[in-house]
Amino acid sequence: MKNPSPALMPFLEQVSKAAEAFLQSGSQPTFANAREGLAILTRTFVTKACPVAKIIDASIPGPKWDVPVRIYHPNPEQSLPLLLFIHGGGHMAGSIAVYDGIARRLAKASSRITLSVEYRRTPECPYPSGLEDVTQAAKGAFSLLENLGIGHEKKLAIAGDSGGGALAASLSHRASHEPELSIEKQVLIYPSLDYTLSMPSVEELAKGYLLEKEKILWYFDQYFQSSENRKAASPLFMEIPQAFPQTLLVTAGYCPLKDEGKAYTERLKQAGIFTMHEEFGDMIHAFLNLEDLVPEACDRFYHLAGAFLKDKASQMIP
C-alpha cells in the first residue's frame, strides 16, 4: 500500500508517537480529551481567513429545548437557498466554534445561507439526542430566517463530515417520513454510515491514519448506551425511498470508513438516486480539519461541493 500525501506524513508520525506515549502512561481516553484534541487540531491547521458578510448566532425553538445555530450569510443582499451543516467529532467532539472556519468556507463555496448546528453530544446525551436536534434544526430553519427578516429561497441542502455525515444521512432517511422536511441535496464528507463496522477498510486501515478502529469503537460505545440495534441505526442499511436527496459523497483513500461510503454510494445509485462519489486517494480522515497541511485537497473539495450545491455540474471537475 502506498503512503498518504507526503504533506501528512510528519503529522501522522507525531500523532503516532503521542498515542504510544499516552498508552504507555496507562491513561484512558475521556470525552474531555477528545473534545480538546479536535479543537486544538482544527485551531492549529484551519487558519486561512475566510470573511463572510454576515454571521448571526441564534437558536431554533422546540417543544423541550432550543437548538443553538450559527448563521453564515455570504451575500445578505440576495435571497439564497439554505445549507444545514452538521459538524463531525464522533458524536462526542466538535462544535459550532471549532468548525467555524469550515462552515465559513462551505457558505462561500456554495453561495448558500449556511446554518451550523450545535447539537447535543455524547456521553452526556447519547443516541438519538443529536439526531433529534438536527431534525429540529432542519424543520425550524426557514421559520428562523423569516423571524430574523433574512430573505431566502425555500430550498434545503444538508452537509456533514464524519459523525456529522452519519447524522446528515440519517436525517435524509428520516425526511421521507416527515412531511415538514424536504431535502434536495446532501453532501457527505468521509461519513460514518455503518455502526457495525462491517466493511474491509475498517480492518485494512485500522491503525496509523489518525482515525483508528479502537477509537471508533470507543466513540460508538459512548453513543449507544442502551443496547440499541446498531445496524438499524446505520444509514448504510436503511431503506432508500424513491424521493431521496441528490448526493455527493466524498471518501479519503486512507480513511477506515471509506468502504462504507463506497457501498452506500452503490446502494443509492442502484435505487436510482443521483449520486456522485469522489475519492481523495492520498488523504486521511478529517483532512478538512488539516487544511494548512493539504490546502490543495481542501480547495478541491470546496470547489466540488460548491459546484454540486449550485447545480454547476460542468464545474465539478477542477
From TrEMBL:
- Which Pfam families does the record cross-reference, listed alphabetically? Abhydrolase_3
Q: What is this protein called?
A: Alpha/beta hydrolase
Recorded hits in Gene3D superfamilies, A to Z, give: alpha/beta hydrolase
Ordered alphabetically, the record's keywords are: Hydrolase
Q: Where is the Alpha/beta hydrolase fold-3 domain?
A: 83-288
Q: Which GO terms describe its molecular function?
A: hydrolase activity
Kindly give the SUPFAM superfamilies that the UniProt entry links to this protein.
alpha/beta-Hydrolases
